[in-house]
Specification:
By secondary structure, the chain is α+β, with helices and mostly antiparallel strands. The chain has a domain at 5-62: SH3 type barrels. The chain contains 2 helices and 5 strands. It has a 5-stranded antiparallel beta sheet. Strand 1 and strand 2 (29-37) form a beta hairpin. The chain is flat. The N and C termini lie far apart (82 Å). The mean pLDDT is 79.
């Protein structure tokens, strides 16, 4: 069975109850004893107890070993400002795009029903069509 080397190391530190130093990927350093761990996090016993995501661990070392001081990243040198690119003399800037005004179209007015049975192309209203269908299903009453 293959065992993850990180798990072997954590198990050893947890059994021995020895102090451990963890360097994280962001450069921070945590010192303490391994209280517990699982596939995702490590619980470090210290002041205060700390939960560390395993994917953020860069290095593990015994706390008594010489741990390098936190190395800060060298300051980036400021880039010199680029001069503005001159525009070609024959090229004019584009005019702002103007949106045409929206025109609302009139909707056709719906016919007002007077409540009487009006037939549209011989079909009538939906209710009338349903009634005709029900009657035809019952046997043509």
């Amino acid at each position: 069975m293959l065992v993850n080397p990180l798990e072997q190391t954590l198990e050893q530190y947890m059994r021995d109850r020895s102090e451990l130093g963890i360097t994280l990927r962001d450069g921070s350093f945590i010192k303490g004893k391994v209280k517990d761990y699982d596939g995702y996090v490590i619980l470090i016993e210290g002041s205060p107890d700390t939960v560390v995501y395993r994917h953020s661990v860069l290095k593990l070392a015994e706390a008594g070993a010489a741990m390098p001081e936190r190395q800060t990243r060298p300051e980036r040198q400021a880039r010199p400002e680029r001069p503005a690119r001159p525009q070609a003399p024959d090229r004019q800037p584009r005019p702002a795009r103007v949106q045409p005004p929206r025109v609302q179209q009139k909707r056709p007015e719906k016919p007002v029903h007077s409540g009487q049975n009006e037939s549209h192309d011989g079909m009538g209203t939906m209710g009338e069509a349903m009634m005709k269908w029900l009657k035809s299903q019952k046997g043509g009453e």
